[in-house]
Write a structure and sequence with these properties.
- This protein is an alpha+beta fold.
- The chain has helices at residues 8-23, 27-66, 75-80, 89-98, 129-135, 171-177, 212-217, 223-230, 249-266, 283-286, 288-326, 328-336, 341-376, 406-428, 436-440; strands spanning 70-74, 102-115, 118-127, 142-145, 151-155, 161-169, 184-190, 196-207, 218-222, 238-242, 278-282, 379-380, 389-391, 394-396, 399-400.
- Strands 2-3-9-6-8-7 form a six-stranded mixed β-barrel, surrounded by four helices. A two-stranded antiparallel ribbon has the order 12-15. A two-stranded antiparallel sheet has the order 13-14.
- The protein starts with 7 loop residues before the first helix and ends with a helix.
Length: 441
């Protein structure tokens, strides 16, 4: 039937039937090959899920916990943290009316923090708690106490009632100064008018580790608190912006930059800063090293996955070599009675394809199952990394959650079948070079 019927549609079903039957002539060898290929595919899917999960956690930290999606500064503040490089409050009012984004103003300063007999250099970061909660979740990262930056009751030296501002301090700073929630913190700094600013504050909470420099020196306070300390009331240094995560980051950055630049040229309150432009940057610009690393990870995923599957495909090559060697006499008979060499090669390649297909289904199901588990429960590394690990200023949390996407399965299957078919093509090509006369003797 195979020989006499030259119609492709008539021949194909028979070739498929024979190829599928031949696949299971040596069950153990086929099962071992399927196990190797399926294992390689499953590892690739799981590896992709873990790397994407790490990238997603780091991006979420940058955008949702500390930096925000976008930030706005004066250029001179970016260059040398000039305390006088502020933006006027009317800019914030303008953006809030025109844009549907969420904005959080911030003011920075530096000084000396003292508690008891201990003192150290500190970095001051002032926020508007209500607006900050709409942009980041930094106020939720409290290890001890609570994130209360408002005025709190306090007894003076003569037991008189005295209201002072609460502050939240970094984890390592709290250890260095040996302070805990409820303790007093004295801050001395240089005010913008040239005077010495000083104040008494109460530690209301201690942050979890977020970023090494801020952990060692950071003090989080309210904007009214820092205004009373350094007498800076006419503006702010930084404006963090939160946009919809589905929006195009580059497009929103360019649009906001055009809006800010136009406002800066036309607004009277900005005339004193004409030579100091206002710059909009994305989180990728601010932590460019991390952004580049995450981009490289996307390429590495498929390189590593290809290597995994490539090694497993060596088993496919071995299987096909053995199958062709064992059936060389059968192939010679088929060629002798008139079967075309192309059809013989096609039948052998069909066997390899079925082997790859079964491996793809098995490996895909295994990879999807474990990836969904990792996406929900993750890998708990808190035993060895209780506070996570800092990578270039971005925190990677101790519970490593995966991030599963169907694309990783689809691409993995395409890569696996492609590599496996290429691996099987080398031994399968031997069927084209067979000499029926020599084989059948």
């Amino acid at each position: 039937m195979i020989i006499k019927n030259n119609n492709f549609g008539g021949r194909l079903p028979m070739l498929i039937f024979i190829a599928w039957r031949n696949l299971w002539r040596n069950r153990m060898r086929s099962i071992l090959t399927i196990s190797a290929l399926a294992g390689g595919l499953a590892l690739m899917i799981v590896y992709t899920t873990l790397i994407q999960g790490m990238s997603r956690q780091m991006i979420n930290f940058a955008t949702n916990i500390s930096i925000g999606h976008l930030q706005i500064h004066r250029q001179s503040y970016i260059d040398d943290q000039d305390i006088y490089a502020t933006m006027p409050w009317v800019l914030l009012n303008h953006l809030e009316k025109k844009r549907a984004y969420k904005f959080a103003p911030r003011i920075y300063g530096a000084g000396l923090g003292a508690a008891g007999n201990l003192s150290t250099g500190i970095m001051l970061k002032a926020i508007d708690p209500e607006k900050e909660r709409q942009v980041t979740t930094i106020l939720d990262y409290i290890r001890q106490g609570k994130a209360n930056l408002d005025l709190v009751p306090h007894s003076g030296l003569d037991n008189s009632a005295l209201d002072i501002y609460g502050v939240v301090v970094g984890a390592q700073l709290a250890k260095n100064l040996k302070i805990s929630p409820g303790d007093e913190l004295i801050i001395i700094t240089q005010a913008v008018d040239g005077s010495i600013g000083n104040g008494l504050f109460q530690v209301s909470g201690i942050l979890k580790p977020i970023e090494p420099n801020f952990d060692r020196t950071g003090v989080l306070m309210s904007i009214p608190a820092i205004q009373s300390l350094i007498y800076l009331e006419n503006g702010f240094h930084e404006l963090a912006v939160s946009i919809d995560e589905k929006d195009d980051l580059t497009e929103r950055k360019q649009s906001l930059q055009e809006d800010v630049s136009t406002w800066s040229k036309n607004n009277e309150t900005s005339k004193n800063f004409r030579d100091d432009p206002i710059v909009v940057r994305s989180w990728r610009d601010i932590v460019s090293a991390i952004a580049d690393m995450l981009d490289i990870n996307k390429s590495i995923i498929y390189v590593i996955g290809g290597i995994m599957i490539g090694l497993a495909s060596l088993g496919m090559m071995n299987t096909m070599l053995m199958a062709i060697h064992e059936r060389t006499h059968e192939f010679g008979i088929l060629l002798s009675i008139g079967m075309g060499r192309f059809w013989l090669l096609f039948m052998v390649l069909l066997e390899a394809f079925f082997l790859s297909l079964v491996s793809a289904i098995t490996g895909g199901l295994l990879g999807i199952g474990y990836s969904l588990y990792l996406e929900r429960y993750g890998i708990d590394l808190s035993g060895s990394l209780p506070d996570g690990v800092d990578i270039g200023g971005i925190l990677w949390e101790p519970v490593w959650l995966g991030s599963f996407t169907p694309d990783s399965v689809f691409i993995g299957i395409i890569i696996m079948i492609s590599i496996a078919m290429l691996a099987s093509l080398i031994p399968s090509w031997r069927t084209v070079r067979l000499n029926p006369a020599e084989i059948t003797r």
